[in-house]
Amino acid sequence: MTAPARIRTADQNSDQQDSEWYRRREAGSLIGLKSLWLIYRLMGRRTLSFALYPIVAYFYLVRGDARRASYEFLCQHRVYFKDEWDHEPGWRDGLRHFYEFSESVVDKLLAWREAVLAEDFTLLDAAAVRRTEQETRGLLIIGSHHGNIEYCREFLQGNLSHVVNLLVYDRHAGNFVRLMREFSDDSRINVYQVDEFSVASMLLLREKIQRGEWVFVAGDRIPLSGAERTVEVSFLGRAARFPIGPYLLARALQCPVRLMFSWRNHIGNDQRLYFNVVEFAEQVTLPPRIRDEKIRQLAQSYACELEKAVRVAPYQWFNFYPYWRDFDGRA
Fold it and tell me: Which one is predicted more confidently, 35 or 144?
């Protein structure tokens, strides 16, 4: 795996206001992540899962911002999906939400060291998955921070020969990126730090697509430049800001676009590993006269697909910041 390269806009203004999630410091040190790996290696997953409880309790108590964001999300989920709930969200739900996140961090680490077998996945649309497996063209794959995108990467990496390019915000998760580089130095994975997309970076990614490589990007977080690079859509019944970057990237790359979602609850009766592919578009065009409306439609379609995944696995929602906000950024 190559060292993370940096992709940014040439005229990026250093005074530009960062989005709320990006201003938050990364939770957990490199030593802490390596300690989790050591516990797993010496004592196994069951012991590691038990060791997570005091860690989760600590962060639940001290990270009031994330705790409030979790509560807001769970309450909104209950309002929108009444049939999925039989009680009002409370502190036990918040702790479970935090705990599921901690288990997902462990899963991310293990996905870079230990193979997840194809038979471990429950495919929600097996036909779409098989067509994607047989795809020889380069693809743009839009994921999310719901569930575990590492499972998507692992599924593809374990079953295909494609080179996968991950566009990440490694300044936000630098410790994790450094650790996964240590874990998978021989992987067919390229990791790129994304600030904003410049012409040069677009050309680089287009060359990769033309070679049949795949590009992963998340589509559910406000970009570093803030609300000016977003569009307002409906998500769980409320107005939310979604980034326009994935759709501008899709237009520039001129390649098919797929959505991928994968998740597994670690608490409850159903702990199967789910995987889904949505055949989103064969090519994205943005005619100048209706450009903004077309982007809004694409972002809304993505939000609707994200809702389907969120409905059945609310505790797999890992955006711990105020998600519904006014345009001026006030939570």
Answer: 144
Sheet of strand 189-194, all strands in order from the earlier edge strand to the far edge: 2-7, 189-194, 164-168, 214-218, 139-143, 257-263, 273-281, 121-123
Written as six digits, the tokens of 131 are 């067509």
Q: Residue 72 half-sphere exposure, CB side, CA atoms within 13 Å?
A: 16
Lookup: tokens for 209: 């697509």
More confident residue, 190 or 140: 140
Q: From 182, 183, 208, 62, select the one nearest 192 (Cα to Cα).
A: 208
Instruction: Record the pTM.
Output: 0.85
Question: Is residue 11 very low, low, confident or very high in pLDDT (cuts 50, 70, 90)?
Answer: very low
Q: What is the pLDDT of residue 176?
A: 60
Which of 1-10, 11-20, 23-32, 58-67 has the highest mean predicted lDDT (pLDDT)?
58-67
Contact 37, 109 (CB under 8 A): yes
Model confidence at 80: pLDDT above 80 = yes
What distance in Å separates the CA atoms of residue 331 and residue 131, rounded to the nearest whole number? 41
Between CA 214 and CA 210 the distance in angstroms is 10
Mean pLDDT to the nearest integer, 37-54: 85
Using alpha carbons, select from 180, 104, 204, 95 the residue that is nearest to residue 144.
Answer: 104
Average pLDDT of the segment spanning 268-272: 81
Query: DSSP secondary structure string, 267-331?
Result: SSS---EEEEEEEEES-----GGGHHHHHHHHHHHHHHHHHHHHHH-GGGB---S--S--TTS--
H or E, element range at 152:
helix 149-159
**Annotated domain spans of the chain:** 2-8+19-316
Check: CB of residue 223 under 8 Å from CB of residue 113: no
Question: What is the DSSP-derived secondary structure letter of residue 207?
Answer: H
